[in-house]
Amino acid sequence: MTEMTEQQKQCAGCGAFLQATNAEQAGYIPEKALEREPAICQRCFKIKNYNEAQSVAIDHDEFLRMLSRIGDEDALVIHIVDLFDFEGSLISSLQRFVGNNPVLLVVNKIDLLPKGMNWNRIRNWVQHQAKEQGIRIVDVLLVSAKRDLGFDRLVEVVAEWRGDRDVYVVGATNVGKSTLINRLIRDYSDMDRELTTSRYPGTTLDLVNIPLEDGRSIIDTPGIVYTHRMTELVDRKDLGAILPDKTLKPTVFQLNEGQTLFFGALARFDFAEGERQSFTCYMSNAIKIHRTKLERADDLYRNHAGDMLAPPAKDRLEQLPEWTKHQLRVPRGGEMDVFISGLGWIACNGKSGALLNVHAPKGVKVMLRSTLI
After folding, report:
1. Which is nearest to 248 in space by CA: 277, 276, 289?
2. 171, 193, 224: which is the final residue of a domain?
3. What domain range is 155 assigned to?
């Protein structure tokens, strides 16, 4: 967040302190527009003039402060998450703030999954994972913002649950929140009629109230930044490689005990103990996976990180934190995924159990979970 000073102006739309240095942070306005009266940030300008919301980011503590008001209101909460990075984008503390308000869980990027999926199974998996995190949800909607799938059904379900309520839309960065907001604006809000003055309804810092025809509002919250996601740690030049934009093409490896997989120079997967078995990697098709023997892994990384093992390139390696080792034990008979937030997951297909060591940049969430596919 930009440091506040006495000279800073506030956005006439949302109250955010205006700044011209970072287009992805709240309150951004092009420098040449700072002297306009009244001045509104770029996000508010796009909502007012183009009926388009633009995502901005905010840190975890500030985001939770904003959420604290929801439990005191009668509202419908829409929580949007990224299916590719489900545990990384889920707001696990959400239930503490929403009170008894209904929560719709909208799961974006279903287009990344291979064709022929059992969508009821995926929905049940999502419900189970949300319950494990203590989040009570009234429905799960599977959508693809990129392909405009599932949004007609989403609008129907919102209508069923909204009643005479405001709608809060919450989510982490880069999960598709802006696309969802824009679709709701198109279906529920008459912007030409409502947004005719320079100042339209705003609330506390960085929240934007988008008026609806019935006098209620859609409240657009900034995207929360979770530094446990790989996508928040890598250089922008590497985002295109780790964020998949096409259907995932799973890669299957038959591994013996004592073999290692490198995912570029972003993470390492050691099969430390167990019977020979297969592992299926679900990651961006741009990530190069290299197999080697565990005994050679340290030397391989030392000699080839940033060139043969990439991304990131050698000149961007130092931007990532040092790796931390996570020891994971897959139980005998268990069907589990090894999840690496922001990078993807590895399905453990064998049922004989395994001891795994996963190395990833410090802070990145690495965990075992019930298998998604």
Report:
1. 289
2. 224
3. 52-224
What are the CB-based long-range contacts (under 8 Å, 24+) for 276-279?
276/350, 277/348, 277/349, 277/350, 277/352, 277/354, 278/252, 278/253, 278/254, 278/349, 278/350, 279/252, 279/253, 279/255, 279/346, 279/347, 279/348, 279/349
157 assigned to some structural domain: yes
Please say which residue of 197, 224, 251 terminates a domain: 224
pTM of the model as a whole: 0.81
* Residue 290 · residue 262 · CB < 8 Å: yes
**Omega of the bond leading into 250 within 30 degrees of 0 (cis):** no
Give a yes or no: residue 9 inside a domain: no
Q: Who's near 144: CB < 8 A, 6+ residues apart?
A: 108, 109, 110, 111, 150
Token readout for 333 is 């008979």
pLDDT value of position 6: 39
Give residue for tokens 């890598």.
Answer: 234
State the residue for tokens 């250089």: 235
**Pairwise CA distance, residues 272 & 353, whole Å:** 11
Residue 70 predicted with pLDDT over 80:
yes
Phi and psi at 120, nearest 5°, equal -65, -40
> Which whole number is the average pLDDT over 127-143?
93
Are 169 and 180 in contact, with CB atoms under 8 Å apart? yes
**Model confidence pLDDT, tens digit, residues 191-230:** 433 322 222 233 334 677 777 778 888 888 877 878 899 9
Q: Kindly report the three-state secondary structure assignment for every residue of 27-55.
A: CECCHHHCCCCCCCCHHHHHHHHHCCCCC
In DSSP notation, 70-119 reads GGGS-EEEEEEEEGGGHHHH--TTTHHHHTT--EEEEEE-GGGSPTT--H
The contacts found for 36-39 with CB under 8 angstroms, 24 or more apart, are 38/12, 38/198, 38/199, 39/9, 39/11, 39/12
Q: How large is the greatest C-alpha to C-alpha distance in the chain, in angstroms?
A: 70
The two tokens of residue 132 are 């494990």
